[in-house]
């Protein structure tokens, strides 16, 4: 039965604000996630699967919750070594789909700052966090401003790449933690199965701009704080790779598959202003008007446009999912003039069975 299911779409709606514990300056009013899984057949129609079908799962937690629908793929050839300084800004140091070449060395780099390079980038605009990290958390859910002993220090990778580091043993409370582990002032991999800190996703989805302003596209830091602070800058008239992780090999929450989730700000909002945990009514971060989902399972790529229940306002662009030349794409999905072409307000999804597709902003 599973092979007959051509699309999985995880839709998140939020309720009941619950704060993360930790330092006051790094607390956020997180909202529990209610997950709705939608299956779509080859004609783009919603279907009801049999009980043996595998569903993409979302992390739910008493303190903080994540909905995710992702996939990733392995890596392995480039140039620079990790460093504590900037290396290529948020664009990173690797050319598109060029693999890292220098293995990360445990116990060498200080916990003070992110070891940039080999795909790792520093995110230095997050209020209350030092060293370019995207989140700093221990297994109890406590947070810190600085990466220190006993904490997992999460980091960002350049556009199209996903982090490889998270401990296999996750907190029983339901929160997720990810990143490098700080021990005796030095950084160590929490997932020693991977020699590198970043890996490319599948080459099956990209962002493409046909508009005159830049767009800040912000991936959630997962596993980790689940803040939408992993930046992709889609430049006006340009393109950028999307992270499409393989659900068979990427992070699993309590055994359930996960995928990538992006929050998309209005055009003209910078990554510094948009790739943050926003405040009510701000229209940025978790209050951005559009959410995108991407993932691969069983060799098929699922790309989604998802309504953000926090913000019903129409963005200052339209967006559609379009197959590249020669691609085989099942379904039709766009958000135009404030309306999705899917069922009601539930958003829409397509299945890329071969080739690749673009999220086109127009």
UniProtKB/TrEMBL annotation:
<keyword id="KW-0732">Signal</keyword>
<dbReference type="GO" id="GO:0016798">
    <property type="term" value="F:hydrolase activity, acting on glycosyl bonds"/>
</dbReference>
<dbReference type="Pfam" id="PF03856">
    <property type="entry name" value="SUN"/>
</dbReference>
<feature type="region of interest" description="Disordered">
    <location>
        <begin position="61"/>
        <end position="96"/>
    </location>
</feature>
<dbReference type="GO" id="GO:0031505">
    <property type="term" value="P:fungal-type cell wall organization"/>
</dbReference>
<keyword id="KW-0964">Secreted</keyword>
<feature type="signal peptide">
    <location>
        <begin position="1"/>
        <end position="17"/>
    </location>
</feature>
<keyword id="KW-0961">Cell wall biogenesis/degradation</keyword>
<keyword id="KW-0378">Hydrolase</keyword>
<keyword id="KW-0119">Carbohydrate metabolism</keyword>
<dbReference type="GO" id="GO:0005743">
    <property type="term" value="C:mitochondrial inner membrane"/>
</dbReference>
<dbReference type="GO" id="GO:0009277">
    <property type="term" value="C:fungal-type cell wall"/>
</dbReference>
<keyword id="KW-0326">Glycosidase</keyword>
<dbReference type="GO" id="GO:0009986">
    <property type="term" value="C:cell surface"/>
</dbReference>
<feature type="compositionally biased region" description="Low complexity">
    <location>
        <begin position="61"/>
        <end position="84"/>
    </location>
</feature>
<keyword id="KW-0134">Cell wall</keyword>
<dbReference type="GO" id="GO:0000272">
    <property type="term" value="P:polysaccharide catabolic process"/>
</dbReference>
<keyword id="KW-0624">Polysaccharide degradation</keyword>
<dbReference type="GO" id="GO:0000422">
    <property type="term" value="P:autophagy of mitochondrion"/>
</dbReference>
<comment type="similarity">
    <text>Belongs to the SUN family.</text>
</comment>
<dbReference type="InterPro" id="IPR051526">
    <property type="entry name" value="Beta-Glucosidase_SUN"/>
</dbReference>
<dbReference type="GO" id="GO:0009272">
    <property type="term" value="P:fungal-type cell wall biogenesis"/>
</dbReference>
<protein>
    <submittedName>
        <fullName>SUN-domain-containing protein</fullName>
    </submittedName>
</protein>
<dbReference type="InterPro" id="IPR005556">
    <property type="entry name" value="SUN"/>
</dbReference>
